[in-house]
Structure prediction request, 592 residues.
Amino acid sequence: MPSIKILPDNLINKIAAGEVVERPASVVKELIENAIDAGATEIVVNIEQSGKRMIRVADNGSGISREDARTAFERHATSKISSESDLETIRTMGFRGEALSSIASVAQVTMVTAQKGAGPGTIIEIEGGTVRNIADAAAPQGTSLEVSHLFYNTPARLKFLKSAATELSHIIAAVSHQAMARPDIRFKLTHGKTVVLDLPSSSGIRDRAFQINGGELSDGLMEFTGGRDSVRVYGMVSKPNHDRGDRSYQEFYVNGRYVKNASLSHALYAAYTDLIMRDRHPAGFIFIDLDPALVDVNVHPAKAEVRFRNQSQIHDLVRDVIREALRAGGAPHFAAGADRVKDAVSDYLKSVECGVRSAEFDAEHSKTSFRSHNSDVSFSSESGSGSLSFDSHSALRTPHSALLYPLAQVHDSFIIAQSNDGMALIDQHAAHERVLFEKLQDQHAAGAVPVQNLLIPVQVEPGRAEQELLKEYLPELQKLGFVIEEFGGGSFIIKGVPALMTGGDYKQLLLDIVDELKVHGKSGKMDALRDEVLSVMACHPAIKVHRRLSQQEMEGLINDLFSCRMPHSCPHGRPTVVRFSMDEIKRMFKRI
Ligand code: ADP
Ligand code: MG
Prediction:
């Protein structure tokens, strides 16, 4: 066994660089952080060949004294903390004292820096961790750090770099994240002769998001703010209906630091439960400001992750603040009318059944087998095409009734309604689903789901695997208002159903619920599944397309819809209402 040796500093730095400096974008990130910590109001980043050839970050911050300029490149050299207790109160971006020493060990570095009114500035040149030159330099206040030929002395790392386009995109992301965190600072990024980003200091995150991402994205975002005790949560998230096809634009900032945190990501999705479809994603720029003692930023060498002292409280707070804002937010507005609506309509028609197997009402059943004994349910079996169960008395004449007045129905599927400032299209099926969903939720939460006993029980014979699942969940289904018994030989008997479900195809309903349990029921936790199951249930008796509604029914539906907590989407996340303002309509006709 060879004897144990302490590694030379230069090698230690190279090893540390492996963690801190993964790619050119890491250098950009660290140097911008230093500039921010130095109080800069302007940060200019120039790169060549996607940062592989050269990265220069210049700031107008405090600058560094001659003496400190040399020390700054030593390992664990920092001006930001000096004792263990300081770790609890970190308000600076940096604190580990590793960036400059790591970068200098794997590149050629030239720093020019000057402090205000402190005589001549300093130029210092370092190569592979060795100081080559220190001299006077005439320079404006601030610091410019130029990093050339990154990884020139670590060929293995060099090989790991990706294509020029990929490295450039990482750099743009790094600058964007820092810029998003600090809208008050002016940022500029050039690549060769091209100006990639030029972001004048702006009044806030909305402006900054617009500067970086343009109108297309920011138009679909709504601002929110909230918090509890000393924790402030604010930012922008996608309006219901402006969800996205991928997870891009989900950014979290904790005390001004861009971080990755699985619990925060989860909280974002949790806020959108039943507002967006499963394969869709919300966008969000979410800022959390809190006492630094409540968050550990020292869990990752590149400070890319944080750990909250009370993770679950922060999770719930973020979820609740966003959800509250979504609830209060307006109905989706489709800015450039016609095409979007055409798409929405054809999408809708393609997927009318919400991914649940056909649940058209079984007219025969409803005529022969069931009679509603529940006065709450105005069930008209004779229509043979579905039950309309608006609690008109409870919901009618809320202030919302004034907001949208139904004028007509299109193809027996969509309601055209007039609003104060224009018009709206309402998807009658999605709207009714939302109404039923929340009623089912309320009944379940109150622990009193009215049950409709069936005169003629319905027999169901699920497959082998489904049988087990069904057995396991029987008690939970009972809480949801189902009366189901095992019948032996792998079959089950439905003897009663939630009263709101009266009139459906019960067998199909049960099989659909079992399907849902199969896909999402692995954990065996009904609580998390409740809404999933309720949304399957809500889809069943909901009014289908191609169902003529009377004026009174349309009014009842709109009233019920706007008495909901989340009126703007069905439980599967589809929009219920699409609005057009008069301005938008006039614009379509080129009147303005
Ligand atoms: P850290 O940021 O964790 O303190 P760094 O290695 O990034 O460690 O920087 C070391 C020190 O150099 C900093 O603590 C700071 O005092 C000084 N420094 C680095 N960059 C700048 C800059 N752009 N302006 C002023 N001081 C700087
Ligand atoms: Mg630093």
Q: What stands out?
A: Confidence is low (pLDDT under 50) at residues 333-402. The longest strand covers residues 451-460. The pocket of adenosine-5'-diphosphate (ligand 1) is lined by residues 30, 34-35, 38, 59, 61-62, 64, 72, 77-80, 94-100, 143 (CB under 6 Å). The CA atoms of residues 424 and 579 lie 4 Å apart.
